[in-house]
Structure formats: structure tokens, C-alpha cells
Amino acid sequence: MTTHPHHKRACAVVLISHTKNPILLAKEMLLRGDTIDGGASSGAEGAQGHCVLGGKTVEKLAEEWGLEMVEERYFWTRKRWEQHRRGLGKKDWGEEDERDGEGYWGDEEGWDGKEYLPQGTVGCVVLDREGMMCVATSTGGLTNKLSGRIGDTPTIGAGFWAEEWWESWRSRERVPRHMGVQALRLARLVPEGLKEVLGDCLPGINGYHGVRDAADNDERVTEEKLASDTIRAVALSGTGNGDSFLRTAAARTAAAIVRFSQPHRSLASAVTEIAGPGGELERSAGDRWGRTGEGEGGIIGIELVGGEGRVVADFNCGGMFRCWVDEEGRERVMVFREEYGLGG
Predict the structure, then answer these.
(1) Phi and psi of 310, rounded to 5°?
(2) pLDDT (tens digit per residue) in 253-307
(3) Which residues contact 23 (CB under 8 A, 6 or more apart)?
(4) Which end of the chain is more exposed for a tag (fewer CB within 10 A), N or C?
(5) What's the pLDDT tens digit per position in 81-124?
(6) Rounded Cα gap, residues 344 and 342, in angstroms
(7) How many CB atoms lie within 10 A of CB 74?
């Protein structure tokens, strides 16, 4: 998902079993969907204007678009197979099962069961030098889920979200949602008197006719105030109990807190309100909190304010693997809340 310039800013794919890199398929849908013909001009069938596709339909497109396809056995890992068996109340997979060939698709005889192999949801949030934000999230899903279950990761607004908006010093000014940021910038250059004339021919150039406040009649409107007008943007990716993220529309809810709260809220405070200890995700589990895994999770994100990016993260469980590049260009890695060193 991107903040701009694509008119279709988000795409997702579900029920994938043969595309080696589902996230690349979602990217291809996004790029092709931004063309007038839905990406069909290359000779292959396009995705039209659809934001979410799944199963055989989208995998057929993946093959036509030249993405790498694999057999299902490619995704098999011994660690996940044993998690599946334990979830069914069976013993760990052993030599007897190997002789019988039950579920054995891999070649991992050297794996001793103690090595930690991180699996699950992977999320990435990026801010480029032009101010565009992108978010991508991918997952293998929930262990022992019912066939056909769709989680939060491919659900726009639940497991991921990105948006930008124009923020004015006039706290009550309403920005036309149908106008892009670039169009809004141009509209603001049109003299007020001319706007009234053009407004009859070009609906929307005046924006919404909001309630006027004292500031509209204040002759002391300063250049400093006008210069404070800015573009704000947020992008978020979540991990955890997907059904809880779906019930709370977690990513979009955090973004909406930032965009619509008065006085203004930071993304850091919004993420904590949703995914931090005692936050909305935890509250959504009710009396099942701490017993079923419901409500557990975390969110990472970047907030753009005044041309400056701010990395944020919070979670309500034991830890969350995360890494980022800070303002000084240093690569940072954390798992728990407190930083830790490598010294003895």
C-alpha cells in the first residue's frame, strides 16, 4: 500500500499456494492496476481495478505476469509441521514418521529441534526521499486454522494501512477528500475571488464549505501560520492475533486517531492506544486475554510530519522483533522494550 501517487493505493492477495513470493504478486497488482487498461497492455491479462484477489484466479495471473511459481512442498518446514502436530495433540514428528513418509516434504535431517527459526508475519514500512510512504505485509497464516480462513495481513485497514493528508493551521478547515495533495496545492494558489467564479464550473475547487470561525476574519493571519500548513502521512504494519486485528480494524483505527483527533495526536500515542499494554487489542479479548492468545500483537509504523519521518512501535506481548534505520543512519534491532547491549 502506498500514500501516493497511485489512484489504487492498496492491493492484497490471499489463498496463495504456488507463487513463490506473494508480496511480489501484490506489488504487481498494484503497479498494473494503476494503468488505464488494468495492466493488460503487456499482452497478459490485467487485474482490472480489483484490490483483493485470491486462489486460482490470481495465481493464473502470477504465471502470466512471469512471477516465479513453485510446488507446495517448497513452503514446508519441519518446525511448522511439528507445531501443527502438537496443535492436534499428536507427538512431535520423529524417525518413525520419517520412515512412514507422513507429511515429509523437506530435507532437514540435521535440524535438532533446538534451533530457532523465526516464522510468521513480516512487515515493512518505508519512507522515501520524495515523501512517499509504502507498507508491505506478508504471512503464512495461523497454525491449524480452518481452510479458507482469511486473516488481517491481507485485509486492508486491519493488518496494514498508509495514507496522507493536508493539515492546515485552521483547525476546522476541511480538506476535499476527492482532491489529491498536488491538486490541493494548486487550488490554494488560486485567488479567493477567482475561486468563487471558477467554483461554478469546477466543482470542488472551493473545497468543502465548512463552518467559518474567528480565524477566517482575523486580519492577523501571518506568514508563519500559513507556513505551518503541512502534509502529514502515516504507514503501519501489524503482527499478532489476526482475528483481533480484524475486529478492531487496528491499522486504520490507529491512523484515524492521528488524522481526526483534536488536539492533534502523534502516531506513537495512537499505536500505543491500539497495540500497547491495556490498549484496544488487549481490551477486545475480554476475559479471554492471557488464555487464548486473542488480542496479542504489535504494530510498527512511520509518521511523516513537516518533512521528517518518525519511527514508532508498540506491542502488548512479551516481545516483537523489529529493526529500523534511525535519524543518524544507524541500523537498530530490538526484541523487547528495553535496549540491550552485547557487552559482558
Answers:
(1) -130, 120
(2) 999 999 999 888 999 999 999 999 999 999 999 999 999 889 999 999 999 998 8
(3) 136, 138
(4) C
(5) 777 777 777 766 554 454 444 454 444 444 344 443 444 689 99
(6) 7
(7) 13
